[in-house]
């Protein structure tokens, strides 16, 4: 579009230009057609006069003493000479010119002229002429046969009539084109008024007003209103979720920070070495909780951003699982943890964001190691069929079925039976849920028959390239 700087940037200008181009193209085509038919009409009109004069001349031929003679019909020729110069020629059966202009061309043959007047275009004395030839059989001549009469007329009057008719039709086409373009402009401007009204309504709104736009508009614009209201609805949901997340995060951060401040105050007044060591350990644990919570909040914000802004790309789920598994093992601290990895294929590709997927799998392993206190973890990838699944199975206590839905919501506290998990922020599985949802997949919990607890992440397979 930058190549054509003259191209209008407004919807009104572009639409009107498009209509104007169509109208002008149609007008040019009509002008050409009108010019053609004007020429045909003038040709036919003057050919009728020329044919009449030629027939009149042929009828006035007579034979005297065996010699062809002509009683020239002045009235018939004067009808033609009123508009143009007129020439004639009479040739007897012997081919001798007995009257008229001997050098006048006669394009039509004698045989063709016997069937009726034959018309042709020619040039004579430097001018364009139109000729009509007609043959008449005269048995009274010394040599009985066909005499040929040729009458010619210059074409000035024909051209003048063609120009006059063309000009009148062209004037009408021009006026109708102007009327069509003007009416189109008024119709377009009137049709765009609802859009201007919607613009005024939206521009006058407060940024915090996320109610649907209500306006009386034509049905064609209802789709735009629906799309705007859909966007406003999604924006309202996103803002509500963000506000709720910020409020929950502020609440979650306030508690450990207050605990941290109290522990520092107690530490300042403690002189007993044994109690001092215990308070330092408690302070260290609280700092760790604050750091972990802060990291999860940042990770949640990062995942939310990437699911909306980063395009998906081919990701090898097998390689990604191995990489994340290698980084997560140190979280077990001093415990002896057995880790097993299995896959039904050396590679398993899905369309995804590798960073978000790494964060999701890290959180699943983090929950199993730190909150589930598991010491036997099996990570398996199944690529056969659809969907592609990644399952983390551990020998921890797991989550009771009645808490599965709550475990996927941020900052949800599980029941008292999960006291070992109460130190968590409740963000880990919420991050996993958001990542899997952004990839068009799902998350499932299960208690396998062999024992333990399993978390399965299911993803649609990579579409064929």
UniProtKB/TrEMBL annotation:
Segments forming a coiled coil: none
Molecular function terms from GO: phosphorelay sensor kinase activity
A Pfam short name: HisKA
High-level lineage: Bacteria, Pseudomonadati, Pseudomonadota, Betaproteobacteria, Burkholderiales
Domain of life: Bacteria
Catalyzed chemical reaction(s): ATP + protein L-histidine = ADP + protein N-phospho-L-histidine
Transmembrane segments: 12-38, 169-188
Subcellular location per the Swiss-Prot or TrEMBL entry: Membrane
GO CC list: plasma membrane
Protein name: histidine kinase
Domain HAMP as annotated: residue spans: 189-240
Residue ranges constituting the Histidine kinase domain according to the UniProt record: 248-463
EC number(s) on file: 2.7.13.3
Catalytic EC class: transferase
UniProt keyword list: Kinase, Membrane, Phosphoprotein, Transferase, Transmembrane, Transmembrane helix, Two-component regulatory system
Main localization (coarse): membrane
């Amino acid at each position: 579009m930058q190549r054509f700087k003259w191209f209008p940037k407004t919807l009104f200008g572009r639409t009107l230009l498009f209509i104007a181009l169509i109208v002008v193209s149609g007008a040019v085509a009509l002008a050409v057609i009108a010019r053609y038919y004007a020429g045909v009409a003038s040709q036919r009109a003057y050919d009728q006069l020329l044919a009449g004069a030629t027939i009149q001349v042929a009828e006035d031929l007579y034979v005297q003493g065996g010699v062809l003679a002509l009683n020239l019909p002045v009235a018939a020729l004067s009808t033609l000479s009123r508009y143009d110069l007129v020439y004639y020629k009479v040739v007897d059966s012997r081919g001798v010119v007995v009257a008229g202009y001997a050098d006048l061309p006669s394009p039509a043959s004698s045989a063709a002229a016997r069937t009726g007047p034959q018309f042709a275009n020619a040039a004579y004395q430097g001018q364009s002429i139109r000729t009509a030839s007609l043959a008449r059989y005269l048995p009274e001549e010394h040599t009985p046969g066909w005499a040929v009469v040729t009458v010619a007329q210059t074409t000035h009057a024909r051209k003048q009539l063609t120009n006059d008719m063309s000009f009148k039709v062209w004037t009408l086409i021009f006026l109708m084109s102007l009327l069509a373009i003007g009416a189109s402009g008024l119709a377009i401007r009137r049709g765009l008024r609802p859009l201007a009204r919607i613009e005024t309504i939206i521009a006058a709104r407060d940024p915090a007003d996320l109610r649907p736009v209500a306006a009386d508009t034509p049905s064609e614009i209802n789709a735009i209103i629906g799309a705007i209201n859909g966007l406003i609805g999604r924006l309202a949901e996103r803002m509500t979720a963000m506000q709720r997340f910020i409020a929950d995060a502020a609440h979650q951060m306030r508690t450990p920070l207050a605990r941290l401040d109290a522990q520092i105050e107690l530490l300042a007044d403690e002189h007993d070495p044994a109690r001092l060591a215990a308070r330092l350990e408690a302070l260290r644990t609280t700092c760790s909780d604050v750091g972990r919570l802060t990291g999860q909040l940042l990770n949640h914000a990062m995942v939310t951003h990437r699911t909306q802004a980063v395009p998906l790309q081919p990701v090898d789920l097998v390689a990604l699982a191995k990489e994340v598994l290698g980084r997560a093992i140190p979280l077990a601290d001093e415990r002896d943890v057995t880790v097993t990895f299995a896959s039904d294929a050396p590679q398993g590709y899905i369309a995804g964001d590798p960073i978000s997927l790494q964060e999701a799998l890290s959180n699943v392993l983090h929950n199993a190691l730190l909150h589930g206190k598991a010491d036997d973890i099996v990570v398996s990838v199944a690529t056969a069929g659809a969907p592609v699944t990644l399952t983390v199975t551990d020998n921890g206590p797991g989550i009771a079925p009645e808490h599965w839905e709550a475990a996927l919501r941020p900052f949800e506290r599980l029941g008292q039976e999960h006291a070992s998990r109460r130190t968590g922020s409740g963000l880990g599985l919420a991050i996993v849920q958001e990542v899997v949802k952004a990839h068009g997949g799902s998350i499932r919990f299960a208690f396998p028959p062999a024992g333990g607890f399993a978390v399965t992440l299911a993803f649609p397979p990579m579409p064929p390239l």
